[in-house]
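Figure S7 source data.
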Amino acid sequence: MSFSVSAMPETLEKAGNITVLDPRQIQMDFPLLSRRINGTHLVYLDNAATTQKPESVLKALNDYYTNHNANVHRGLHTLADEATRIYENTRDTVAEFIGGVKREEIIFTGGATEAINLVAYSWGMDNLKPGDRILLTEMEHHANLVPWIRIAKQTGAELDYIPFDDSGCLIIDDLDSLITDNTKIVAVTQMSNVFGTINPVQEIIEMAHQKGALVLIDAAQSVPHMPVNVLELDADFLVFSAHKMLGPTGVGVLYGKQELLESMEPFHSGGEMINEVTWDNATWAELPHKFEAGTPNIAGVAGFQAAIEYLDHIGMDAVRHHEKVITKYALDQMSELEFINIIGPKDVNIRGGAISFTGAGLLHPHDIAQVLDSHGIAVRAGHHCAQPLHRKLGVGSSARASFYIYNTNDDVDAFIEGLIAVKDYFGV
Ligand code: C6P
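Tokens for the predicted C6P complex:
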């Protein structure tokens, strides 16, 4: 089967034990990054929302539709066989990428949000009852909050929260008392999309397991930015989205331990997920198909394969190293600007590359984002789907710059100059 990704230029260099990537070389693989916005060169700093796509991913999408398009698992013809192989090969690639889990434990979903909903409904509806407790953190994205609020209302279970401190770090000193004998599941983000904080999920998982609770890790921001080994973590469920790691939108992953997934009822039902159907009954297909009803996003999964190959070529250690370096460079300069307040930790050893900040006085995050955009700089402003977090901080919204493998120190310099232009424009 011909299914190619474009050859990647040499983008890596060894500095001692550390592999250092060259963001300038990498930029050349991303057609969109050569766009001009508002008459100037684009500086894309909205990577926590979604990343840009390399040529190899675009090519894989095109190649799939041009040469292999067919439905998966059901056709007895050559194209159907090719499409199925492309789709199932990606499952193997994903299983390997997160630490070598079993292919049956990888469920393709529409994204991290759908994956969390799958667990909340399929596991939650049958395993939660009045008196049970669900433990979340105060820094969860709505995707790991709203499904649990709904499931708590429907089952009579109650919600508890691990609080965060002034620097945007979880307070886990009282974890022992927060995880009670009634806690049935702990759902926690590994990397905050607002603070950037990397949470001590290993410790949380160990303690939860000691108390007999399951743990779901929202890895939407961590898997794209650092090495994550699910087996070492011993997470029960872990979710992430392809589009935040160079892949297409509309594809996500639920990892779940086989025995748990086997014990759960399907989330969606219909074609592809059954074993046998009669007029009044249906039995389910084996894993992973039990949880993949209907025609999946085959092209998206083909593109996801190319995205993982691209990241694998760079190496996740190099990705993490680059982000630490560029985040420190940005934090050092941002800390000098008296008209903004950074929210989140300043130590790059415990944080990723999403830096949220508010403006002093009446400087609104939306105004910041708009003026930056007029300088070709893309950042996000709003509540970043974390309203309770912002409410606790006493603000309605924040602005956020977030980095990825193609961002350079020049991008940071342009961003800092842009912020100074914001200050001058509003006279703060
Ligand atoms: N955060 C952001 O700009 P989806 O939309 O399903 O691909 O991912 C949801 C999600 C779940 N958890 C975390 C920690 C996230 O950051 C996100 C997506 C984007 O912060 C879009 S709101």
